[in-house]
Amino acid sequence: MPELDSTVKNVVNETIEPMGISQIRIFAEKFAKIPGLIKLTLGEPDFNVPEHVKTAAIESIEDNDSHYSAQKGIIGLREAISNYLSKRFEIDYDPETEIVVTIGATEAIFDSLAAIINPGDKVLIPTPTFALYIPIVKILGGIPIQVNTTDDGFRLTGKKLREVIAKEGADRVKALILNFPGNPTGFVYSKDELQEIVDVVKDKEMYVISDEIYAELTYGEKHISLAKLMPGKTILINGLSKSHAMTGYRIGYIAAPKDFVTNAAKMHAFVVTAPSNPAQYAAKEALTNGINDCIPMRDIYQERRDYIVDQLNDIGYETKLPEGAFYTFSKIPNEFNLTAVEFANRLAEEGKVGVTPGTAFGDGGEGHFRMSYASSMADIKEAMKRLRIFTENLKN
């Protein structure tokens, strides 16, 4: 095996070199090595991809769809995305010019930020939130500004947003990233709450990147897209990983005004050339004949949610009922005198339950831990039994 030559050891990207990998992955991989541990760490659906969707991928292979796709994605999928967004959320995008298919929502986030950020630009990121926003902003030369929303129930208020923009300088702030339904909190913005944000940013020279990957997983009120209220400044991010359990197919997309998509599509082309054909044909099937495939999954998630939240609160972990996604975000009792990382490590080692410490989601996550209920009810019930015993031992 080759060793890195001493002459190039210091030839390294100085932004990336000091970064670690996502804490979500670090703890998931670390805890996976503990024998007998129940892992409630990763946000990956435990369902299989619907059969008709798999068949569409297989047929694509058998039909020799083995050549380069159009860079923005096959037109049939872009049309399916356009029709889906119109039918589901009453927002309209031209499939020819306003949609680009990406390798998962993660690439969509990267491409969108790359189309905005110049060195020194600031991006507002309410925390706790999805872990990858912060390092992507840094890699692109931007400055991530974390906005702790814990005291406001994990909600970015118009008042707080106005204060932060004034503090950071309206001329320096180029984007705000919203993630809702929220990971890790399950928080969902109402129309009035979104309007508060619109009222603040509508006259500012800044975009809002709205990551709505969990839009199909809301319990009660229907998801409202920010793009419906502010289409000209919203960059909509979505995909099929969560709605159709297609995490491994890696299909996401950007929907935004034509001029923005033109630049985002350039970065997409530079980075990946084009998405995989079989995955795209599967996604097309999912968004046409499988548009309601997510409903039975959502019903099962809701049953798990109700059980796990009831148990967590009964054991002594203050947990708000998530309105969307498939996570709980619970407060660690002050009496334990443990940081989020210390709590997660001890729960894994002593209680044999794997959770993600809240600090994996930014500064606003300290003092909390996330559990994913995208796992079987049997595992969840056993995890709650173990958590109860672990908690009693901590108290004693």
Which key phrases capture this entry?
396 residues, alpha/beta, Aspartate Aminotransferase, domain 2, 12 strands, globular
Structure overview:
The structure is a single chain. The strands form 3 sheets. This protein has a 7-stranded mixed beta sheet, with helices on both faces. It has a 3-stranded antiparallel beta sheet with strand order 9-12-11. It folds into 2 domains: 4-46 and 292-393, Aspartate Aminotransferase, domain 1 (Alpha-Beta Complex), CATH 3.90.1150; 50-288, Type I PLP-dependent aspartate aminotransferase-like (Major domain) (Aspartate Aminotransferase, domain 2, 3-Layer(aba) Sandwich). The mean pLDDT is 96. With 396 residues, the protein is α/β, with parallel strands linked by helices. Strand 3 (122-127), helix 5 and strand 4 form a beta-alpha-beta unit. It is globular. Helix 3 packs parallel to helix 10. It is built from 13 helices and 12 strands.
